[in-house]
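Issue 218. Parser rejects a valid record. Input:
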Amino acid sequence: HVILDHIKIDSWTDVSGASIGLQTQGREDLILDGVQINATLPWSIEMNPDYPGAGVNEDCNFCHVRDSAFAALGSTQPVIKVQDGAKLSNFTIESPVISMGTYGMYWLDSGSTPANNSFMVTLKHVDWEQGTSATGWGVYFNRTNADSKIYGLTLDTITSCCTPTNGIYLRQIRGGKLTNSFLLGTDALNVSSVEQFDMDGTNWIEAGTTEVSPSLASVLPIKTVTFAMSTYFTTASDYTILCDSTLGSPVISLNTAIL
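Output the parser choked on:
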C-alpha cells in the first residue's frame, strides 16, 4: 500500500530525453493525491517483475489518482505511458490536469507479451492541453492483440482540444462508455473492435472522423454501439459507421443530434 500525498517533482529532465518522474511496477493499492510531476515522461506504468506469467500478474491494481497534475517536458514522450503488455485493474484517474507531451495517456498492447485482460479502467474529469504531436491522441488505448481486452472502460468528462493533435482512440473494448466529453482534433474519435460501447450524456465531437466498427471474435452475445441523448457532431460528414459482417448483425443505435 503506497500513498503519495501532495508531492512535487519539477524539471526532471535531461539531454537524453529519457527521464521518468514516477515509475511504478505493481502491485496494488497505489494512491496519488495532489501530486504534481513535471518530467520528460511524468508517469511510466510498467509490468510487475515479480509476476511475469500470463493470467497471474497484477501490474497496477486498485490504483486511485485524484487532483493531480502531470506535464511532459519536451516533445518526445507521452504524459502517462502504460508499458506494452501491462495490465490495469480497478484503475481510476480523476480530476487531473495533463499537459504537453506527444500523447495524453498512451497504452499500446502489441501482443509481444503474454495476453492479459484489463478491467474496470476509469478516467474522469481529465483535461489534456498543449499536446505537441500531430499524430498524438488525448487517450490512446490501442490493443492489436485480440486476446488482450479492456473490460469495463469509463471515460467521463474528457477534454481533448489540443491542436494539432487528436481526441480518443480505442481498440478491444468490452463494455465501455463515453459521457459528457468535449473532443476536437484531426480525428476526434476513433473506436473499433468494441462491444457494448455507449455514448451518452452530452458529448461534443468536432472535426475529423468518428469510426465505430465492432469487429473480431465475439465475446458478448450482443454487440452494441449506441449514440444516445445529446451526442453532437458538427456536420453529418463527421462520422462514419462501419460494421463487420462476420459478426452477424451488430446493433448500432443512432439517437443523436447532428448539427
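Fixed in the parser; the record now loads. Confidence is low (pLDDT under 50) at residues 213-232, 234-259.
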